[in-house]
Write a structure and sequence with these properties.
294 residues, alpha/beta, Rossmann fold, six-stranded parallel beta sheet, four-stranded parallel beta sheet, 14 helices, binds D-glutamic acid
Length: 294
Amino acid sequence: MYGIGFFLFVYLKTENNTNTLSTKKPIGVFDSGFGGLTILKGIVKQLPEYDYLYLGDNARAPYGPRSFETVYEYTLECVKKLFAMDCELVILACNTASAKALRNIQQKDLPSLAPNKRVLGVIRPTTEVVGKLSKTGHVGVLGTIGTVTSNSYPIEIAKFYPEITVHQEACPMWVPIVENNEIENESTDVFIKQHLDNLLNKDKNIDTIILGCTHYPLLINKIKKHLPANITLLSQGEIVADGLVDYLKRHPEMGQKCTKGNSIEFYTTDSTTNFDKAASMFYGKEVKSKHLEL
Ligand code: DGL
């Protein structure tokens, strides 16, 4: 016979592990910090019925300037955590993590770690649509140093649209500008214009630009201000959401594994006070997070 102590132990242990006794199987949405909230917002708008679990690795953000090995190690650790928290499907809502860790996780880790679970990224759904939008066949990509040096966008675009010419530009100051809430600052214009000019100087025929970083949609007004009006800007929230809707249609077995309880839980590896303060800027709504120890 088990005594009350045993049940108390089980309860406390599962609480500490953030593995509740509920039967929820949320869709995991992972980012290095706040930026993935712009993606989550788009996903929840289109698929509000599912349960979601957002994890921001704020304690170790930004990922953008980190090495391939480090981004892979951190991302894998967070994916394992989301699996342990009953996520059957995890979206890497971070371009840098998608660029540097996704392929390894899908090909090397998943088969032994959790062969029936799935991890998806944000680069593929974006590259799938870009060819339909560009009329000149010349596309620009703006991203972190990590995303740009990985060459993931040109490689993936070439798979769907080999005829398209791609030029990239890393904008290392743009994430700190957003994180420090300097978006409306006049000096921000200097950094925005500098990188847009650099990109367009590489190729005057660019007519479509991918905002290949979760933070950049917050700079969209400033970006538009310094671009010719005929250039189309691609923000990822809606595109990734469309991609997920399509994926769940093609893989109904995954959709069935994820529970539908209209809930969203937010976790951060850093201070919840800081997370909650900044998160609403990215998510557009108040957020109440919990701390997660990796
Ligand atoms: N979330 C990252 C991305 O989309 C930007 C922030 C970071 O560098 O960690 O690339």
